[in-house]
């Protein structure tokens, strides 16, 4: 009896060890890999959407800072800054250039002290042109408040000068020729809150434009709106962002609105004019 019992145990022990050491088969391994791939495929868009939501919020915060700077500038100077001064492309009625050697300095250079950039402001020589040797070093500074984190550019310099993704609103060309210009950022003319009868809470002053090369020191960073949001061709300065479905905009009361690219163009035209007399509903 003892002999048989010992024999049976001797036979069963190797089988138990083989069962305990059994690994995955090839089919099981492929199933696990497929499940992991499906889970990653489901999670990745959610992670990307969360990251983009964070970038869009950061972009809105940039515009909020710019809005506070513009309003503080207005408090100190009784007007918003001019959209630009002495722009070289401006022509007189006889066709001659008004400022062939103009300084062409932008609104975004004049609000630097209100963006906690007083040191950079002191480095600029406002008696010289934006592209003068005297302003080359200061103009090459990259200002984070002027950059949308979703813009995707490999360099934050344009022609050796700091990029900006935010442009001033010169008016609209959707329903009229914008002559005289009907926006809040004009050349050689400061606009006051009193000059905005449509109301500061219904009038845009700055918006995203991330598909054209603009420099924060150069006065060519204002534009009139002629297309629906995110629909302008690459050669056209307009409201365009890298955010899906819309763009961040700043209104003259300092509020920031994310406007849908499906917004009716006539409503958009009303929002970018300061004195059109339109009645604007929800947007």
Walkthrough of the structure:
This protein is an alpha+beta fold and 283 residues long. The chain has six helices and nine strands. It has a five-stranded mixed beta sheet with strand order 7-5-6-8-9. Strands 1-2 form a two-stranded antiparallel sheet.
State the gist of this model.
This protein is α+β, with helices and mostly antiparallel strands and 283 residues long. It has helices at residues 2-20, 26-77, 107-110, 118-123, 136-139, 265-271, and strands at residues 84-85, 105-106, 157-158, 161-162, 166-172, 204-208, 222-225, 246-251, 256-260.
SSE order, as H and E?
A: HHEEHHHEEEEEEEH
Q: Report the major sheet.
A: 5 strands, mixed
Low-confidence stretches: 1-11
Fraction of residues in H or I helices: 25-40%
Q: Quote the distance from N terminus to C terminus.
A: 93 Å
Content of β-strand = 5-15%
User: How many distinct folded domains?
Assistant: 1
What general form does the structure show?
Answer: globular
Strand order of the largest sheet: 7-5-6-8-9
**How does the helix and strand content classify structurally?**
alpha+beta
Average of per-residue pLDDT values? 89
The number of helices is 6
Radius of gyration: 30 Å
- The overall strand count is 9
């Amino acid at each position: 009896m003892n002999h048989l019992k010992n024999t049976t145990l001797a036979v069963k022990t190797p089988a138990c060890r083989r069962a305990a050491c059994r690994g995955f088969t090839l089919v099981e391994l492929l199933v696990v890999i497929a499940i992991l791939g499906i889970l990653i495929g489901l999670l990745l868009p959610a992670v990307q959407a969360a990251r983009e939501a964070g970038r869009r919020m950061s972009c809105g915060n940039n515009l909020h800072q710019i809005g506070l700077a513009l309003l503080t500038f207005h408090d100190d100077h009784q007007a918003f800054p001019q959209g630009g001064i002495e722009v070289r492309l401006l022509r007189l009625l006889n066709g001659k250039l008004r400022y062939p050697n103009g300084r062409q300095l932008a609104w975004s250079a004049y609000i630097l002290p209100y963006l906690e950039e007083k040191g950079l402001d002191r480095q600029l020589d406002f008696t010289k042109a934006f592209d003068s040797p005297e302003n080359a070093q200061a103009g090459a500074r990259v200002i984070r408040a002027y950059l949308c984190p979703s813009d995707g550019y490999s360099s934050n310099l344009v022609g050796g000068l700091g990029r900006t993704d935010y442009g001033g609103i010169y008016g609209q060309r959707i329903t009229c020729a914008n002559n005289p210009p009907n926006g809040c950022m004009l050349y050689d003319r400061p606009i006051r809150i009193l000059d905005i009868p449509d109301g500061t809470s219904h009038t845009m002053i700055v918006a995203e434009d991330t598909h054209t090369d603009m420099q924060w020191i150069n006065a060519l960073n204002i534009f009139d709106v002629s297309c629906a949001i995110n629909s302008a061709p690459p050669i056209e300065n307009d409201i365009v962002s890298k955010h899906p479905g819309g763009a961040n905009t700043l209104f003259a009361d300092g509020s920031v609105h994310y406007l849908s690219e499906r917004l009716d163009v006539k409503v958009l035209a009303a929002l970018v004019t300061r004195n059109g007399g339109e009645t604007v509903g929800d947007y």
